Amino acid sequence: MMAAGPVVLLVAFLLNPLQAQDSELFVLRGSNLHLDVKKPVKLTDETYFVWKFNDSRVVRFTHNKQTTIFPSYKENVDFSEGNYSLQLKNLQHSNSGIYKAVVSGEKDVIVTEYRLTIQDKVSSVKLTVTPNNSSSSSSCNLTVTCSTEDSSISTAVHCDNQTCSLVKKPNLKPPVQTSSIIVYLQQDYIICNHSNQVSWKHNNKELKSYCKTEQDAIVSAAIRITAGVLTAILAVACTVIVYIKCKRKSNENTGNDISQEMEMSQNVYQRPDDASDLHPTTTYSMIQFPAQPVNSAETKHTPSDPSTCLPETVYAQVQRHDNAKR
After folding, report:
1. Which residue from 4, 138, 192, 261 could staple onto 185, CB 3.0 to 4.6 Å apart?
2. Phi and psi of 163, rounded to 5°?
3. Closest among 164, 163, 129, 127 to 147, alpha carbons compared
4. Phi and psi dihedrals of 203, rounded to 5?
């Protein structure tokens, strides 16, 4: 199976890179954010506490617990007098900037500072893979393009019988906002990832859909041959089964015909069960046997004993059955 080998990451672009520090925050547009004060605050008659956004004041709080929220922020912030925290609501891109918690007196002392960036969700990413004409049976070359609504990246991938790798640096088109496109190979997939600090989208495609090596061709041919052989065996088996069934059915029909003929022949010679239907008739037949031959001289004279000259007469009674009723 084709593999990508070690995971290869290719960061396409990253505008305005931001260091991962405690004071740097990235928030999805429309969300709320809670800002805490990280150092203890102690107010006197000469000092007061204030939250600032860039160069403007958001909230002021005095030592006698007098709270003032300035008009531009009344609808979007809440202030906690107990711990001096600030709640920002429904953040928009205009709210990106620096927020400072300051104890103000003769001098300003910054007790907490945040750098806030408001971001949208990233757009979907489209991954396009195009095989090159330089591909062969043992290797293939691909052009990979990842594109978003406002940016794109192109790179090249080379695959052989064993592994695939990225071989070309991407061509960059800068996006409008801070985000990044990352192309990497993992196992049998090309993956394109579009992300920022608050959201991400990705797309992937399987490498072997575009790169069929010589080994893959051999395996595919073997599968086709095996499927053809199995189909032929199945066809022969079905033909044999059908022939056997037809032969058995023919033999059964022949046996039934012979049995019916035998039964009919028995019925012809069988004596009827109902003897009352028989109408016997009696026929008398007279059978004469010729007398023994006599000499010619004797035949000229009439014998004295007539019984010696008369022929023997035998009557035989013959019974005939008339099967047909009249």
Report:
1. 4
2. -135, 165
3. 127
4. -145, 150
Specify the residue for token string 């925050």: 25
Helix, coil or strand: residue 259:
helix
pLDDT reading at 71 higher than 70: yes
Q: CB neighbours (10 Å) of residue 154?
A: 19
CB-based contacts of 284, cutoff 8 Å, min separation 6: 315, 316, 317
pLDDT, tens digit, 9 for 90 and up, residues 138-197: 778 899 999 988 888 888 888 887 788 888 666 555 444 578 888 999 888 999 999 999
Nearest in space to 99 (alpha carbons), one of 82, 74, 118, 120: 118
- How, if at all, do strands 152-159 and 140-147 pair? antiparallel
Cβ(140)–Cβ(210) below 8 Å: yes
Amino acid present at 324: A
- pTM for the structure as a whole: 0.55
**Token pair for residue 271?**
């004596």
Write 140-143 long-range contacts (CB < 8 A, 24+): 140/210, 140/211, 140/212, 140/213, 142/190, 142/210, 142/211
What is the residue type of 322?
D
Structure tokens at 39: 């150092």
**Triad 231, 235, 240: Cα angle to 5°:** 150
Distance CA 67, CA 56 (A): 16
> Distance of CA 33 to CAs 29, 36, 79, Å?
11, 10, 12
